[in-house]
Amino acid sequence: MSALTFTAIKTTEQRVDMSPLVCHLLKDLSVAEIAAIELQNGKRKIRVDELFEISGDDAQNILIKNSYAKLDFIAKELHDGVMTVEGEIGAYFGMSMKSGELTAKGNVGLYAACEMKNGLLTINGNAGDFLGAALPGNKQGMKGGTILVKGNVGQRSGDHMRRGNILIEGNAGDYCGSRMIAGTIAVMGTTGRFLGYAMQRGTLLLWKKPTLSAAFNDCGSHTLAFLPILFKSFKKLDSKFAEESAAFNRVQRYGGDMAEKGRAEVLVKL
User: Fold this and answer.
1) CA geometry: angle at 194 spanning 188 and 199, to 5°?
2) Measured distance CA(31)–CA(244) in Å, rounded
3) Where does the chain show beta strands of DSSP type E?
4) Which helix (H) or strand (E) holds 48?
5) Is the predicted pLDDT of residue 245 greater than 70, yes or no?
6) Residues 32-66: pLDDT tens digits?
7) Terminal CA-to-CA distance of the chain, rounded, Å?
8) How far does Cα 157 stand from its chain's mean position?
9) Rg of the chain (C-alpha set)
10) Who contacts 126 (Cβ-Cβ below 8 Å, separation ≥6)?
Protein backbone atom coordinates (compact mmCIF):
# COMPACT_ATOMS: atom_id res chain seq x y z
CA MET A 1 0.00 0.00 0.00
CA SER A 2 1.12 3.54 -0.73
CA ALA A 3 0.11 6.82 0.88
CA LEU A 4 -3.24 8.21 -0.20
CA THR A 5 -2.06 11.32 -2.05
CA PHE A 6 -4.06 14.42 -2.98
CA THR A 7 -2.20 16.65 -5.46
CA ALA A 8 -3.87 20.01 -6.05
CA ILE A 9 -4.40 20.61 -9.78
CA LYS A 10 -5.88 24.11 -9.47
CA THR A 11 -6.39 26.88 -6.94
CA THR A 12 -9.66 28.48 -5.91
CA GLU A 13 -10.72 32.08 -5.32
CA GLN A 14 -12.81 31.11 -2.29
CA ARG A 15 -11.67 29.15 0.76
CA VAL A 16 -12.06 25.36 0.88
CA ASP A 17 -13.18 23.29 3.88
CA MET A 18 -10.85 20.28 3.89
CA SER A 19 -12.25 18.64 7.04
CA PRO A 20 -13.80 15.61 5.22
CA LEU A 21 -10.35 14.50 3.97
CA VAL A 22 -8.98 13.01 7.18
CA CYS A 23 -7.76 9.49 7.99
CA HIS A 24 -10.58 8.18 10.16
CA LEU A 25 -13.28 9.39 7.74
CA LEU A 26 -11.65 7.88 4.63
CA LYS A 27 -10.38 4.54 5.90
CA ASP A 28 -13.33 2.46 4.61
CA LEU A 29 -13.88 4.32 1.33
CA SER A 30 -12.74 3.44 -2.18
CA VAL A 31 -10.85 5.92 -4.33
CA ALA A 32 -14.00 6.46 -6.40
CA GLU A 33 -16.02 7.26 -3.29
CA ILE A 34 -13.34 9.66 -2.06
CA ALA A 35 -13.26 11.40 -5.45
CA ALA A 36 -17.01 12.02 -5.22
CA ILE A 37 -16.87 13.74 -1.81
CA GLU A 38 -17.98 17.35 -2.01
CA LEU A 39 -15.99 20.06 -0.24
CA GLN A 40 -17.47 23.41 0.75
CA ASN A 41 -15.89 26.13 -1.40
CA GLY A 42 -17.30 29.50 -0.47
CA LYS A 43 -21.03 29.35 -1.23
CA ARG A 44 -20.77 26.31 -3.49
CA LYS A 45 -19.51 22.76 -3.25
CA ILE A 46 -16.70 21.24 -5.29
CA ARG A 47 -15.90 17.56 -5.83
CA VAL A 48 -12.56 16.30 -4.58
CA ASP A 49 -11.52 15.12 -8.05
CA GLU A 50 -12.17 18.61 -9.47
CA LEU A 51 -9.58 20.02 -7.10
CA PHE A 52 -7.12 17.14 -6.62
CA GLU A 53 -5.50 14.33 -8.51
CA ILE A 54 -5.82 11.24 -6.31
CA SER A 55 -3.32 8.38 -6.09
CA GLY A 56 -2.41 5.69 -3.55
CA ASP A 57 -4.71 3.71 -1.31
CA ASP A 58 -3.52 3.89 2.33
CA ALA A 59 -6.01 6.19 4.07
CA GLN A 60 -4.06 5.92 7.33
CA ASN A 61 -1.18 7.73 5.63
CA ILE A 62 -2.39 10.82 3.77
CA LEU A 63 -0.21 13.21 1.78
CA ILE A 64 -1.47 16.53 0.41
CA LYS A 65 0.73 18.11 -2.28
CA ASN A 66 0.72 21.59 -3.83
CA SER A 67 -1.31 22.91 -0.92
CA TYR A 68 -2.14 26.63 -0.88
CA ALA A 69 -3.22 29.14 1.77
CA LYS A 70 -6.98 28.89 1.10
CA LEU A 71 -7.21 25.25 2.20
CA ASP A 72 -8.71 25.42 5.70
CA PHE A 73 -9.50 22.79 8.36
CA ILE A 74 -6.89 20.31 7.12
CA ALA A 75 -6.72 17.32 9.52
CA LYS A 76 -9.60 18.58 11.64
CA GLU A 77 -10.18 16.16 14.56
CA LEU A 78 -7.51 13.78 13.25
CA HIS A 79 -7.89 10.47 15.09
CA ASP A 80 -4.91 8.14 14.57
CA GLY A 81 -3.06 7.93 11.29
CA VAL A 82 -0.41 10.15 9.72
CA MET A 83 -0.98 13.25 7.59
CA THR A 84 1.64 15.34 5.76
CA VAL A 85 1.03 18.57 3.87
CA GLU A 86 3.46 20.08 1.35
CA GLY A 87 2.96 23.77 0.61
CA GLU A 88 1.11 26.66 2.23
CA ILE A 89 -1.79 25.90 4.56
CA GLY A 90 -4.86 27.91 5.56
CA ALA A 91 -6.53 28.40 8.92
CA TYR A 92 -7.50 25.82 11.57
CA PHE A 93 -4.78 23.32 10.66
CA GLY A 94 -5.08 20.31 13.02
CA MET A 95 -8.06 21.81 14.83
CA SER A 96 -9.20 19.58 17.74
CA MET A 97 -6.65 16.91 16.77
CA LYS A 98 -7.17 13.81 18.95
CA SER A 99 -4.16 11.59 18.13
CA GLY A 100 -1.72 10.61 15.38
CA GLU A 101 1.01 12.60 13.63
CA LEU A 102 0.51 15.71 11.55
CA THR A 103 3.25 17.55 9.65
CA ALA A 104 3.20 20.83 7.72
CA LYS A 105 6.17 21.41 5.42
CA GLY A 106 5.23 25.05 4.78
CA ASN A 107 3.64 27.96 6.65
CA VAL A 108 0.25 27.68 8.33
CA GLY A 109 -2.47 30.24 9.03
CA LEU A 110 -4.56 31.29 12.02
CA TYR A 111 -5.67 28.98 14.82
CA ALA A 112 -3.38 26.05 13.98
CA ALA A 113 -3.83 23.22 16.49
CA CYS A 114 -6.58 25.16 18.26
CA GLU A 115 -8.14 23.05 21.03
CA MET A 116 -5.80 20.15 20.19
CA LYS A 117 -6.26 17.15 22.50
CA ASN A 118 -3.33 14.81 21.77
CA GLY A 119 -0.79 13.69 19.18
CA LEU A 120 2.25 15.32 17.59
CA LEU A 121 1.88 18.30 15.25
CA THR A 122 5.00 19.60 13.50
CA ILE A 123 5.19 22.84 11.51
CA ASN A 124 8.40 23.24 9.52
CA GLY A 125 7.58 26.84 8.57
CA ASN A 126 5.88 29.70 10.41
CA ALA A 127 2.52 29.70 12.19
CA GLY A 128 -0.07 32.47 12.38
CA ASP A 129 -1.84 33.95 15.38
CA PHE A 130 -3.62 31.88 18.06
CA LEU A 131 -1.49 28.74 17.75
CA GLY A 132 -2.84 26.10 20.17
CA ALA A 133 -5.45 28.58 21.42
CA ALA A 134 -9.16 28.42 22.17
CA LEU A 135 -11.75 29.16 19.51
CA PRO A 136 -13.50 32.54 19.87
CA GLY A 137 -15.90 32.39 22.81
CA ASN A 138 -14.40 29.22 24.30
CA LYS A 139 -12.41 29.13 27.54
CA GLN A 140 -10.01 26.22 27.00
CA GLY A 141 -7.45 25.94 24.24
CA MET A 142 -4.96 23.13 23.69
CA LYS A 143 -5.65 20.25 26.08
CA GLY A 144 -2.77 17.86 25.35
CA GLY A 145 -0.15 16.63 22.89
CA THR A 146 2.89 18.41 21.48
CA ILE A 147 3.22 21.19 18.91
CA LEU A 148 6.66 21.75 17.38
CA VAL A 149 7.23 24.88 15.28
CA LYS A 150 10.59 25.27 13.52
CA GLY A 151 9.88 28.84 12.42
CA ASN A 152 8.19 31.82 14.06
CA VAL A 153 4.68 32.13 15.49
CA GLY A 154 2.24 35.04 15.58
CA GLN A 155 0.38 36.63 18.46
CA ARG A 156 -1.56 34.92 21.25
CA SER A 157 0.14 31.54 20.97
CA GLY A 158 -1.19 29.25 23.70
CA ASP A 159 -4.10 31.56 24.54
CA HIS A 160 -6.27 29.77 27.15
CA MET A 161 -3.93 26.74 26.88
CA ARG A 162 -4.99 23.97 29.29
CA ARG A 163 -2.35 21.23 28.92
CA GLY A 164 0.43 19.95 26.61
CA ASN A 165 3.63 21.38 25.10
CA ILE A 166 4.21 24.10 22.51
CA LEU A 167 7.85 24.16 21.35
CA ILE A 168 8.93 27.12 19.23
CA GLU A 169 12.41 27.21 17.69
CA GLY A 170 11.95 30.75 16.33
CA ASN A 171 10.33 33.90 17.71
CA ALA A 172 6.93 34.37 19.33
CA GLY A 173 4.69 37.41 18.86
CA ASP A 174 2.86 39.53 21.44
CA TYR A 175 0.75 38.00 24.21
CA CYS A 176 2.51 34.61 24.13
CA GLY A 177 0.91 32.41 26.80
CA SER A 178 -1.94 34.85 27.39
CA ARG A 179 -4.66 33.62 29.76
CA MET A 180 -2.81 30.31 30.03
CA ILE A 181 -4.39 27.80 32.44
CA ALA A 182 -1.63 25.15 32.45
CA GLY A 183 0.95 23.46 30.20
CA THR A 184 4.38 24.42 28.86
CA ILE A 185 5.42 26.84 26.12
CA ALA A 186 9.14 26.90 25.21
CA VAL A 187 10.57 29.64 22.96
CA MET A 188 14.16 29.64 21.72
CA GLY A 189 13.90 33.01 19.96
CA THR A 190 12.60 36.36 21.13
CA THR A 191 9.19 37.06 22.64
CA GLY A 192 6.99 40.11 22.09
CA ARG A 193 5.07 42.40 24.40
CA PHE A 194 2.68 41.37 27.18
CA LEU A 195 4.27 37.96 27.70
CA GLY A 196 2.13 35.73 29.94
CA TYR A 197 -0.70 38.25 30.13
CA ALA A 198 -3.30 37.03 32.69
CA MET A 199 -1.55 33.63 33.09
CA GLN A 200 -3.09 31.50 35.85
CA ARG A 201 -0.72 28.53 35.94
CA GLY A 202 1.76 26.88 33.57
CA THR A 203 5.36 27.42 32.48
CA LEU A 204 6.96 29.68 29.89
CA LEU A 205 10.49 28.42 29.17
CA LEU A 206 12.68 30.99 27.42
CA TRP A 207 16.17 31.11 25.94
CA LYS A 208 16.27 34.91 25.69
CA LYS A 209 15.50 37.42 28.42
CA PRO A 210 11.98 38.85 27.93
CA THR A 211 10.37 42.15 28.80
CA LEU A 212 7.98 41.32 31.62
CA SER A 213 5.21 43.40 33.15
CA ALA A 214 5.26 44.54 36.79
CA ALA A 215 2.83 41.71 37.55
CA PHE A 216 5.74 39.19 37.50
CA ASN A 217 8.09 38.92 40.50
CA ASP A 218 11.76 37.95 40.29
CA CYS A 219 12.18 34.78 42.37
CA GLY A 220 15.94 34.38 41.87
CA SER A 221 18.02 31.73 40.09
CA HIS A 222 17.27 28.05 40.53
CA THR A 223 18.36 24.57 39.47
CA LEU A 224 15.05 22.78 38.91
CA ALA A 225 14.87 18.99 39.03
CA PHE A 226 12.00 18.70 36.55
CA LEU A 227 13.88 20.33 33.65
CA PRO A 228 16.16 17.33 32.80
CA ILE A 229 13.07 15.10 32.87
CA LEU A 230 11.18 17.48 30.59
CA PHE A 231 14.02 17.68 28.07
CA LYS A 232 14.43 13.90 28.11
CA SER A 233 10.90 13.69 26.73
CA PHE A 234 12.01 15.88 23.79
CA LYS A 235 14.83 13.48 22.76
CA LYS A 236 12.59 11.66 20.27
CA LEU A 237 11.81 14.86 18.36
CA ASP A 238 13.59 15.97 15.20
CA SER A 239 14.29 19.36 16.71
CA LYS A 240 16.80 21.65 18.37
CA PHE A 241 14.95 20.88 21.60
CA ALA A 242 16.31 17.34 21.50
CA GLU A 243 19.85 18.72 21.82
CA GLU A 244 19.28 21.07 24.77
CA SER A 245 18.95 18.72 27.77
CA ALA A 246 22.52 19.22 28.98
CA ALA A 247 22.70 22.96 28.30
CA PHE A 248 19.47 23.98 30.01
CA ASN A 249 19.78 23.34 33.75
CA ARG A 250 19.87 26.64 35.68
CA VAL A 251 17.22 29.32 35.21
CA GLN A 252 16.05 32.69 36.44
CA ARG A 253 12.51 32.26 37.72
CA TYR A 254 9.72 34.84 37.63
CA GLY A 255 6.34 34.24 39.28
CA GLY A 256 3.04 35.74 38.16
CA ASP A 257 0.73 36.96 36.81
CA MET A 258 0.10 38.55 40.24
CA ALA A 259 -3.02 40.22 38.82
CA GLU A 260 -4.41 36.67 38.49
CA LYS A 261 -3.65 33.65 40.72
CA GLY A 262 0.11 34.21 40.58
CA ARG A 263 0.86 30.48 40.23
CA ALA A 264 2.44 30.63 36.77
CA GLU A 265 6.16 30.87 36.09
CA VAL A 266 8.54 32.25 33.49
CA LEU A 267 11.88 30.43 33.39
CA VAL A 268 14.77 32.09 31.56
CA LYS A 269 17.93 30.19 30.69
CA LEU A 270 21.10 31.38 32.43
Assistant:
1) 85
2) 45
3) 3-8, 16-17, 38-41, 44-47, 52-55, 58-67, 71-72, 82-87, 101-104, 120-123, 143-149, 163-168, 184-187, 203-206, 217-223, 250-256, 264-269
4) helix 48-51
5) no
6) 999 999 999 999 999 999 999 999 989 999 999 99
7) 50
8) 9
9) 19
10) 107, 108, 149, 151, 152, 153, 154, 170
What's the pTM value of the predicted model, to 2 decimals? Answer: 0.94
- Strands 163-168 and 203-206, by their bridges, are unpaired
Q: Work out whether the CA dihedral 147, 148, 154, 158 comes out positive or negative.
A: positive
Contact of 170 with 188, CB cutoff 8 Å: yes
Q: Is the pLDDT of residue 246 over 80?
A: no
pLDDT at 247: 64
User: What is the rounded CA–CA span in Å between residue 149 and residue 168?
Assistant: 5
Give dist(CA 85, CA 149) in Å, integer: 14
Report helix, strand or coil for 230.
helix
**Separation between Cα atoms, residue 101 and residue 121, nearest integer Å:** 6
Within 10 angstroms of residue 44's Cβ, the number of other Cβ atoms is 10
The rounded distance, in Å, linking the Cα atoms of 255 and 129 is 25
By the 8 A CB rule, do 239 and 222 touch? no
Between CA 176 and CA 194 the distance in angstroms is 7
Amino acid type, 79: H
Give the whole-angstrom CA distance, residue 48 versus residue 61. Answer: 18
For the chain, give every domain's residue range: 110-269
Task: Give pLDDT tens digits for 130-170.
Answer: 999 999 999 999 999 999 999 999 999 999 999 999 999 99
Predicted local confidence at residue 257, as pLDDT: 87
The number of beta carbons lying within 10 Å of the beta carbon of residue 208 is 12
- The pLDDT of 70-77, averaged and rounded, is 97
